[in-house]
Amino acid sequence: MEYEAVIGLETHVQLKTKSKMWCGCANEFGAPPNTNVCPVCLGLPGVLPVANEEGLRLTVLTGYLLNCSIPSFAKFDRKNYFYPDAPKNYQITQYDKPSTAHGFVDFEFAGGMSRVRITRAHLEEDVGKNFHFARNSGVDFNRAGVPLLEIVSEPDLTSSDMAYTYLNALKDILIYGGISDCDMEKGMVRCDVNVSVRPVGQKELGAKIEIKNMNSFSGVRRALDYEIPRQIAVVKAGGKLSQETRRWDDVGGITELMRSKEQAHDYRYFPEPDLMPFEPTAAWLEEVSRRVVELPLARKQRFMTAYGLPAPDAETFVNDVPLADYFEQVTATAKNPKAVANWVINNLRAKLTETGTPLAEVKIKPADLPDLVALVDGGKISSKIAQDVFAEMFATGEAPAAIVEKKGLAQVSDTGAIEKLCDEVIAANPKSAEDFRAGKGAALNFLKGQVMKLSKGKANPGLVGEILERKLQS
Amino acid sequence: MLNQLTIAELTAQLSRKEVSAREATQACLDQIGRIDSQLHAFLSLDAHDALAQADAVDRAIAGGANATAQPLLGVPIGIKDVLAVKGAPLNCSSKILGKYVSPYDATVIEKLRAAGAVVFGRLNMDEFAMGSSTENSAFGTTRNPWDLSRIPGGSSGGSAAAVAADECVATLGSDTGGSIRQPAALCGCVGLKPTYGRVSRYGLVAFASSLDQIGPFTKDVRDSATLLEVISGIDHRDSTSLPQPVPHYRNALTGDIKGLRIGLPKEYMIGGLDPEVNSAVQAAVKQLQSLGAEIVEISLPHTDYAVATYYIVATAEASANLARFDGIRYGQRVDADDPLALYSKTRGAGFGDEVKRRIILGTYVLSSGYYDAYYLRAQKVRTLIRQDFLKAFEKVDVIVTPTTPTAAFKIGEKSDDPLQMYLSDIFTISCNLAGISGISLPCGFTSNPRLPIGLQLLGQPFGEETLLRVAQAYEQSTGWHKERPPFSAAGK
Ligand SMILES: [Zn+2]
User: Is the reported ipTM for this assembly greater than 0.90?
Assistant: First the structure.
């Protein structure tokens, strides 16, 4: 019997706000322990939470980006459990009335398009971080109270690769929308997995097993690559799986039992009495919706169709939004956007890195790159000369035509002049001319190079080739 | 004696420069020194700091400060041990907080300071405001100044006793199910529970967040209006505080209640009501009628469910609110090898029996499988109770009831019977569940022993002006508020 995996993901993402969710402390990674703290995020006696408006906005914005509906009524709840990293020993979260629900993420997978439905994305608070020393333990509460979005997917994923691809697509969307920097190294994204197996064709789901403690997307993939065969083996051997939570051991590459269903926490959720329900007005939603951006996939498809770019170029622009914005700005008037894209991706980007120039300080004027392309396309300069012109444009901000004019770089397409140069080169290199006539095609390239050199690169290379060939064969 | 004055009297004398703020504060400290070893209203106080604040006020008055701009200028005000005062101990009358000192001021404390008050002392209470007698304090019971063998009420017993015994000119307390009004009634002073959302809860250690409000204890209704005006208003640090403008409450005290309709709920005439309390309240009703008010019988049909509803909602919220007292970040810790053992030992040693009882109850009603039957149902009943009141307020301006079924009981009389203790809040609890305003003021005495009886007036949400107007008209026409306990008045 064949088995298939059914996978759902719970992805926790830190929101990119200036301050924490319930207090004014900085939402910042890497500060010395317990320096970004105050009475509120330390849970001192008598304090109250006050919702960070930007946290609410980013939550709803995420809802829009993930095609969710935004309920007119949402509220916060307390999730009760004792742990030293939780300053209040309850976490403020959204239990039964989340701020967003019922969306989906489309992404490219296995040569086609896949869709994972999003159950909900709800807002909660991050907890502190425990540290264990030789003789005691400590807690750093800098992270406590940082706004955290939990994005819950439906069990629409069927393989570890698909889960991995979905996570990356989700991450791209969140970075795109300015929701989160999604820096895994800084713990800005964390992920829990729910996975079960069932015989192919069976409708009912198998026992849901949760896996925790993966600290990277590849960790998720590895955990699934371990867990799915493990579950199938258990079932095939006639064993029975039951609902439980397992811990991923990244070093050992295995999952191990953390707690069984019987040991599951009773979180005793109830509405948070310190916060009012969240009932966004139409005007507020309208303001947030104005921050909706084009998603990576849509952008890629648009760059391919609107500008005729090949997929790798379009992807480059998906991954480098400022460069893409620059490209769109300069190519507005271009007849050949594909060539402009080449200049931006291959030449401009290299120059920026080489010189350490920020994109915003580029001196080249918007219309100048298309002009440069037009000079090449119109045969005014060779693509080799164009490189020099580009370097000059980058250095001075001068228009390409002016540079060509000033430096006398215009391509020589005057047949008479080129014929003269060709004659000179053939006369000076009788051996090569003979080789060509004897059938060594490579000799033509050498001669061509000599003509170009003599013309200081200005001769029209196409014409040079034609004329040389004609003269040698005559 | 300056400590016996009301806020109005003291600020008048201060502004005429007849007395100094230092003298007023010293008078309170002297009274405390004279009687508090017997009364035990105060857990602690910093006399040096109080006098330093008073001196600062005297300098301000010399520099032109006045009570018009700062209505509490030079007024010594004691604080219940549940409110955060920067640099002062904050224990909530519990062992669990150990040597904890608050690093910040509650919003009401900031407002008192801005109004010129001398903020001092930590007033005794039932541990974490859970109780009706102050017997649940981990630091000993406060006595009723009218009879030292009796309880002062609770949970704000220290705040009530301190005002009644002239140890302070006024105090602040908190009211979750009657914790201001009940001790005010039993000690013979004026206690006001504002509408939920009227006063910021920032800096009030939460017992039940959806029920808690901070309010004043004063010697008369005018002072109550003065103090309410100072502490009210929306606060950006409390999302549940409401933006209604703060009126000049003292301007509402016109003495004229002609034509006002006063409701008498028939459900409040219960079997357990003490006959002397009943007759005092009946007399008060007649008095209000003689002042021109119209008495209307009303019905609050869900009254019977209030106590049960309250003990579900309040304990559920408390079970989460008190979770933070775990010995990890502050307070008294009992060390252990793992976090769970540390929590158990710390909380086992730090909390008293009543607090543990309520945490267990609250944990139970929120547990999976019981939530719908208890917590969810209680929330629905709570809505019905609020609707009862809103419907009644379509017919009447103010509702009148006894504050408590009996006068102050003996220390130890009910401490072994939590249910009997819970019933002493039967008249005050609905007000918190409904989120409306309420006040208790003296309306007579029992005969033997002579113990104060409280009259409770309940007002509409944000109806404090009418509430205070009726209360003050009654008070000025009777004079019960001028009575002082012989214990504290003696030995001048
Ligand atoms: Zn903070």
Answer: yes
pLDDT of residue B19: 97
Residue numbers of chain B with a pLDDT score lower than 50: 492
Model confidence over B53-80: pLDDT tens digits? 999 999 999 999 999 999 999 999 999 9
For all residues of chain A together, what is the average pLDDT? 93
For residue A140, what are the CA distances in angstroms to A65, A149, B289, B418? 33, 21, 64, 41
Burial class (CB in 10 A: 0-12, 13-18, 19+), B305: middle
Coil, helix or strand for B269?
coil
What is residue A448's three-state secondary structure? helix
Structure tokens at A206: 């198998």
Residue matched to tokens 């003050």: B472
Half-sphere exposure of A425 (CA within 13 A, CB side): 28
Alpha-carbon separation of residue A307 from A122, A337, A350 (angstroms):
38, 6, 22
Cα–Cα distance for residue pair A44/A48, rounded to 1 Å: 9
Task: For residue A197, give the 3-state DSSP assignment.
Answer: strand
Residue B7: CB partners within 8 Å, gap ≥ 6? B71, B72, B75, B169, B170, B218, B222, B223, B226, B227
Answer yes or no: are the C-beta atoms of A188 and A181 closer than 8 Å: yes
Cα B340 to Cα B344: distance, rounded to the nearest angstrom = 6
Indicate the residue type of B193.
Answer: K
Q: Is A43 on the interface with B (CB under 8 A)?
A: yes
Ligand 1 center to A70 CA (angstroms): 28
For ligand 1, a single-atom ion, which residues have Cβ within 5 Å? A 23, 25, 38, 40-41
DSSP secondary structure string for all residues of A24-65: SSB--SSPPTT-S--TTTTT-TT------HHHHHHHHHHHHH
Q: How far is CA A387 from CA A404, A448, B43, in A?
A: 12, 19, 84
Please state the φ and ψ torsions of residue B123, each to the nearest 5 degrees. -95, 140
- The residue with greater pLDDT, B129 or A323, is B129
| Pairing of β B398-402 and β B213-218 | unpaired
User: What residue segments make up the domains of chain A, in order of their start?
Assistant: 3-289, 296-407, 415-473
Backbone angles phi, psi at B33, to 5 degrees: -60, -35
Does A50 touch chain B if contact means CB atoms closer than 8 Å? yes
Given A46, A51, A78, which is nearest B203 (Cβ)? A46
Asked if the C-beta of B470 comes within 8 angstroms of chain A's C-beta atoms, the answer is no
Let me know if B80 is a catalytic residue.
yes
Partner B contacted by A22 (CB < 8 A) = no
Fold of B2-301+384-489: Amidase signature (AS) enzymes (3.90.1300)
Residue type, B337: D
Handedness of CA B417, B423, B424, B429 (dihedral sign): positive
Q: Are B132 and B155 in contact (CB under 8 A)?
A: yes
CATH topology of domain A415-473: Arc Repressor Mutant, subunit A (1.10.10)
Rounded distance between C-alpha atoms, residue A341 and residue A338, angstroms: 5
A46 CA distance to ligand 1 middle (Å): 14
What CA–CA distance (Å, rounded) separates A136 from A134? Answer: 6
How far does Cα A290 stand from its chain's mean position? 21
Phi, psi torsion values for A401, nearest 5 degrees: -60, -40
Both structure tokens of B167: 């140890």
Q: Which chain B residue is nearest to residue A269, measuring alpha carbons?
A: B366
Tell me how far the alpha carbon of residue A20 lies from the centroid of ligand 1, in angstroms.
Answer: 7
pTM of the model: 0.90
User: In this structure, what token pair is assigned to residue A429?
Assistant: 């290199």
- The label of the residue with tokens 């541990």 reads B127
Mean pLDDT of the A384-402 span: 91
Q: Where would I find the beta strands (DSSP E) of A224-301? A: 244-249, 254-260, 270-271
Distance CA A323, CA A345 (A): 8
Can you tell me the mean pLDDT for A219-228? 97
